């Protein structure tokens, strides 16, 4: 590819259409890239797409890797270091998530203000093992993981585009693949999490370690039941359905942010 991306975008479940916005694109199957993990999840295509979005060279992961597929944390986050070596400066992460917050509705967007890397705290951290100094320090700080200026830019654009269903909140990563019990949902909510999902935090840790700026979006695809009396249960098809419905909105937001050059 002739593209030399400064921005990398990870497309979450059902959000692969973000990659379709790229112009003059060159696509590579993960299976054709040496040492790249493979996607096994429905709704995750398994392609690295290079192209231009509003005049800025970008690379999109159309499909990401999850721990529940059997990948080790370092494997899940391998593409982040590939992006770093390609010259990427900013990582945009997207995901589908369940809401724990009482005031979030299905279809809402949460700009990720911070995360709780539950697995990372508990020993499943992608940075465990010998530190590769070439990428970053042994003990990287994580206090400003999500870039404040990019959050503000996103909030301003949402206001201008008339998006009213946008929140700023805390994302908690769990391993999955099962969705949460009621007791687990209450536990995560009591920790301060507004949304829960099975990705993102590990990728962000590796991105911060190697000095990338990070912006994150969660699409709220369902409410997590925090009460035994609530009826119904979530399934992956519902998650995909909602994210497909809202993908155009996320595409517009990300495109506008890139048009504003993300402060590059
Ligand atoms: Cl409810 N839980 C988890 N862990 N991940 C999700 C989700 C729920 N909804 C979408 N992704």
Descriptive notes:
The chain has 264 residues and is of the alpha/beta class. Strands 5-8-7-6-9 form a five-stranded mixed β-barrel. It has helices at 17-20, 73-76, 78-86, 118-121, 148-161, 182-190, 201-209, 236-259, and strands at residues 7-11, 23-29, 47-53, 56-62, 90-99, 109-117, 166-173, 195-197, 213-223. β3 and β4 (56-62) form a beta hairpin. The two termini are 22 Å apart. The protein is built from eight helices and nine strands. It is globular, with a radius of gyration of 17 Å. Residues 96-98, 174, 176, 179-180, 196-198, 221-222, 224, 234, 239 line the site of 6-chloroguanine.
Which descriptors would you attach to this protein?
264 residues, alpha/beta, globular, binds 6-chloroguanine
**String of helices and strands:** EHEEEHHEEHHEHEHEH
The portion of residues assigned to helices is 25-40%
Strand order of the largest sheet: 5-8-7-6-9
What is the overall pLDDT average? 93
| Spatial gap, N to C terminus | 22 Å
Which residue ranges are poorly predicted, with pLDDT under 50 across at least 5 consecutive positions? none
What fraction of the residues are assigned to beta strands by DSSP? Answer: 25-35%
Main structural class: alpha/beta
**Radius of gyration over all CA atoms, rounded:** 17 Å
How is the main sheet built? 5 strands, mixed, barrel
Number of helices: 8
Q: Which overall shape is indicated by the principal axes computed on the Cα atoms?
A: globular
Bound molecules: 6-chloroguanine
**What's the number of extended β-strand segments?**
9
């Amino acid at each position: 590819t002739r593209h030399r991306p400064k921005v990398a975008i990870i497309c979450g479940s059902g959000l692969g259409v973000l990659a379709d916005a790229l112009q003059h694109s060159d696509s590579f199957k993960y299976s054709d890239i040496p040492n790249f993990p493979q996607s096994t999840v429905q709704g995750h295509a398994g392609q690295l797409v290079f192209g231009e979005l509003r005049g800025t060279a970008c690379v999109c992961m159309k499909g990401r890797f999850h721990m529940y597929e059997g990948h080790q944390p370092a494997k899940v986050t391998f593409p982040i270091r590939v992006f770093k070596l390609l010259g990427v400066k900013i990582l945009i992460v997207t995901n589908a998530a369940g809401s724990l917050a009482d005031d979030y509705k299905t279809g809402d967007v949460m700009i990720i203000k911070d995360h709780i890397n539950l697995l990372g705290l508990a020993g499943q951290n992608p940075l465990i093992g010998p530190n590769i100094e070439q990428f970053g320090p042994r003990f990287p700080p994580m206090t400003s993981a999500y870039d404040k200026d990019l959050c503000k830019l996103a909030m301003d654009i949402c206001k201008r585009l008339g998006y009213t269903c946008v929140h700023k909140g805390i994302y908690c990563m769990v391993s999955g693949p099962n969705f949460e019990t009621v007791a687990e949902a209450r536990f995560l909510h009591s920790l301060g999490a507004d949304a829960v999902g099975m990705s993102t935090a590990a990728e962000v840790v590796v991105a911060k370690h190697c000095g990338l700026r990070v912006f994150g979006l969660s699409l709220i695809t369902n409410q997590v039941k925090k009460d035994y009396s609530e009826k119904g249960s979530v399934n992956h098809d519902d998650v995909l359905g909602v994210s497909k419905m809202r993908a155009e909105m996320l595409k517009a937001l990300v495109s506008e942010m890139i048009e504003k050059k993300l402060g590059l």
